[in-house]
Amino acid sequence: MDLNLLKRNQGISFELKKKAIEKSRKCSLFNCTTPSILSHTIQKSKLKEILAPDGHVYTIDSTGFIEVGTLSKFKKVGVGNALTFKGFCSVHDNQIFQPVERINADFTTYESFLLFSFRAVMNEIRKKEIIIDWFESLLNHPKLHVSINKENVKAGLRGQLLGIQDLKYVEDEILNEIARLPNHNRSFVYKVLILPSIPVCGSAIYNEESFEDMASHTYGPNGESPLNSRLIHIIPDLNSTYLIIGYHSSFNNKNSQFFSELEQRDNSSLLSLANDLLVKRIESWACSTQFYLEKVRPVEEEFLRLFSHPNTKRFMESQLAINILS
Ligand SMILES: [Zn+2]
């Protein structure tokens, strides 16, 4: 393809992605049709108290609005705008997350874990909806359709739709579980690991399947079960930081060994696990200004190179050369 055409295509693609990101969205809950506000993926009370004594944090987001040919960047942002997504209307946002937003909320209860996970799942669904809108607009664009590889875009689109089906399964299970609280027959298994106080936070759901299994995944029409996902939440509190890892109990056979091995880990091994999860699995996270200056900035360039290629097999299986949590 000639270079000018390629550049023009990149420019159009960039504008279409921006439009998909900026599009207003409805509340994600049930059939609520009220426009969503910017919901936080981590409870904002703690973000402010622990990460942002000066009202600001540094954030990184590998999926956001990145100009063509550039890498994601750490950005200093006001704490109110950090780690947000177009999630819920203000009424539902306040109602649902009140147990983790109130002063002195206990972050180590099963209910809190479910709420952290619910936010992570809804954020991931929203990200996929944005990508779907972007891909569809690429396919429908009158000036692009002759010069893009339509089959690649369509395959990407199918991948996102499958991903949403899996996430909807987890969403339904979490909502059922919240509705049944307090119950003793739990559908999710969580482990909370207590780390020293680190002013970093982030939250995500990710696939823990092999690349081969993911490639042959056809959940939905054929009635196959969804992929094994893990939920991770790095939540700072006053004197410690919680690393919370969870999964749905229907995937016991794929997770129980990993979970029992967590018990054997010492502090430094847990920190290195948290570092791995943060760098490889959490696409958007935040840290305090001081943490950024001391730990991130010295390795920032190397970090961004790594971070800009998430989800590739080689990257996931690699030993990380940087450890910002040590
Ligand atoms: Zn609503």
Describe it.
The strands form two sheets. A seven-stranded antiparallel sheet has the order 3-2-9-6-7-8-5, with helices on both faces. The protein has a two-stranded antiparallel ribbon with strand order 1-4. The chain is built from eleven helices and nine strands. The protein is globular and about 55 Å long. The protein has helices at 3-22, 44-51, 90-101, 110-140, 150-180, 211-215, 252-262, 267-281, 289-296, 300-307, 313-317, and strands at 38-40, 56-61, 75-78, 84-86, 188-196, 200-207, 229-236, 240-248, 284-287. The mean pLDDT is 86. The longest helix is centred in the middle third of the chain and has 31 residues, at 110-140. The protein is an alpha+beta fold and 326 residues long. It has a domain at 36-123 and 184-317. Strand 7 and strand 8 (240-248) form a beta hairpin. Residues 27, 29, 32, 34, 88-89, 91-92 line the site of zinc ion (ZN). The site of zinc ion has 8 residues, from helix 3.
